[in-house]
User: What shape does this take?
Amino acid sequence: YPRWWQPCFKSAEADDVVAVGARSHLRVRARLPYELIWDITLVQLDRPNVIVVETNLRLSGRFPMHGPIRYTLTEGPDEVEVVNEQLIVAERRLPRPLRALLQRAFAYNHAWAFRIGGRGVQREVDRIVAARA
Assistant: This one.
């Protein structure tokens, strides 16, 4: 993650084996001045098409959230489609007067991080394809 998603991922620690029960710990920061701390456990692995993880994360160490993320991969003749479904629930509601503003700010931050991360993932895919050629 740190290589793909620079400069967003500040650190990533993960078990060496990819199997149900494997755990990861990530620290992420995008454009806005807050950090997301992720604790992830792999709960379903149906290779090569389905990966499900259970997540626990904290926004700047204070606002806990949790829920599953499901990745469904479908291989086509020239590409692999990856669908990322997230059902992350906040354990504490944002203050009502700030909710609309913060939701827009979070959406901006998320879109920025995915734009940057998408470029890094594409670089990694290109590197792997070139190495196989």
User: Anything to note?
Assistant: The mean pLDDT is 89. The CA atoms of residues 25 and 39 lie 5 Å apart. Residues 99-132 form the longest helix (34 residues).
